[in-house]
Specification:
The protein is built from 12 helices and 17 strands. It is an alpha/beta fold. One manganese (II) ion binds next to loops.
Length: 419
């Protein structure tokens, strides 16, 4: 029997089924305190992908992997010659991550496909639900790697050559996990891309909003920093006689924090998420330390200023302590605006559900940043409890997940049938 083509572009998603799938996925690669631990291309990540593929294949969808392990789930449309409308996010998580970061966008997309399947509706355009590889960048830097090589925003060598703390390359992890496919990078070309995500900050919850239409993403820069001094005995070495890289770093980072906090817009962000002493020992003055710096701002020119300040502050602290410092920029993701027409379409979809939805920038990076360079792109946010994410306690309300999935579905169907 021929599926009916939807002319009325409104179908109701199934909120309970979405929530059940979110909780089922959370049971795969759980972290010790109720969160998720599915680092990119680990067994846990692969187990999550396997479960997702199972769900997708139950819907007569066609699953393919590209050379970077990006997983594309295709639902045929009336006209196969048309570029597909895509939506998705990521299933990999932080080491002590939450159950909604990335997963919500993937499983809300699955819920759209399930709803179309059960109503036997075929859209005019084909649809592609995408699971991007290594969005988090925790095991393999930089972040948003799979979407980066798909969109030609990240050199293949920087993606496939990235290594984890054990020296395993991403290329090897792809092979060993069976996630390397043969779909050429950059295919399929997309008509448009939608990504639903938790906000991962406090704005929506504090303003009592249930949804936010995302107009763009702030700029992000990552740096690898190495301070080198001289290891020496903790006891007999007078403070004046030391060349201590760790205290030099502390000195420089406190000065950098003051600069960031002095930013007049209040939009500057400085994070030191990794700090390692080489061959640590409590009674040895460190010889060498490594740290990772994450700088963000909604204005690229201010990020240039902050980058200069980073070199100036850390350089001055190193000189004062008689140590050396090396700063290497690992990643630069510019401030990224999303597509005005898609922003309007999400806004209209929310209004039709009786909601006036605020517009906002994203503080977190997302695969949508990369995809926006090759297809019209937009994001939709729901609040998360206390604005907490990248934390096992991350939580989103079932009704917000359902609302986000519903408006996502409405906007996708609009685009797929009338775009
Ligand atoms: O770093 C980020 O903003 C994203 O969570 N990968
Ligand atoms: Mn995410
Ligand atoms: Mn994340």
């Amino acid at each position: 029997m021929q599926p009916t083509t939807t002319t009325s572009t409104r179908i109701d998603i199934n909120a309970e089924r979405l929530w059940r799938s979110l909780m089922d996925m959370a049971a795969i690669g759980p972290s010790p305190n109720g969160g998720s631990r599915r680092l990119a291309l680990t067994e846990e990540d692969v187990a999550g992908r396997r479960q997702f593929r199972q769900w997708a294949e139950d819907l007569d969808c066609h699953c393919r992997l590209d050379e970077a392990g990006n997983l594309f789930v295709r639902r045929e449309g009336q006209d196969a010659s048309l570029a597909p409308v895509a939506f998705g996010s990521h299933l990999d998580t932080q080491p002590l991550g939450g159950r909604f970061d990335g997963v919500l966008g993937v499983l809300a997309g699955l819920e759209v496909l399930r709803s179309l399947h059960e109503h036997d509706i075929q859209t005019r355009r084909p649809l592609e639900l995408v699971v991007w590889t290594n969005e988090e960048g925790s095991r393999f830097a930089p972040a948003m790697g799979g979407s980066g090589v798909y969109a030609g925003r990240l050199e293949s060598s920087a993606f496939f050559g990235a290594t984890d703390a054990d020296g395993t390359s991403l290329a090897d992890a792809l092979e060993e996990s069976g996630q390397r496919g043969d779909l050429p990078l950059g295919t399929p070309a997309l008509d448009a891309y939608f990504e639903l995500h938790i906000e991962q900050g406090p704005v929506l919850e504090q303003s009592g909003e249930s949804l936010g239409v995302v107009t763009g993403v702030q700029g992000i820069r990552w740096y690898d920093v190495c301070f080198t001094g001289q290891s020496a005995h903790a006891g007999p070495t007078p403070m004046s006689h030391r060349r201590d890289p760790l205290l030099a770093a502390a000195d420089g980072l406190v000065a950098m924090r003051d600069d960031v906090e002095a930013d007049p817009s209040g939009n500057a962000r400085l994070t030191i998420g990794e700090l390692n002493v080489v061959e640590p020992s409590r009674n040895v003055i460190p010889g060498e330390i490594h740290l990772a710096v994450d700088l963000r701002h909604v204005d690229d020119a201010r990020l240039d200023d902050l980058e200069s300040a980073l070199h100036r502050r850390l350089g001055a602290a190193a000189a004062k302590a008689g140590v050396s410092v090396d700063i290497e920029r690992r990643w630069r993701s510019p401030v990224t605006p999303f597509d005005p027409d898609l922003i309007a379409s999400l806004d209209a979809a929310a209004r039709e559900r009786g909601m006036m939805v605020p517009l906002m920038m994203s503080g977190a990076g997302h695969d949508a940043v990369n995809v926006s360079h090759v297809a019209p792109t937009v994001m939709l946010f729901i609040p998360c409890r206390d604005g907490i994410s990248h934390n096992e306690a991350e939580y989103a309300e079932p009704e917000h997940c359902a609302l986000g999935a519903q408006v996502l579905c409405d906007a996708i169907l609009d685009r797929a049938n009338h775009g």
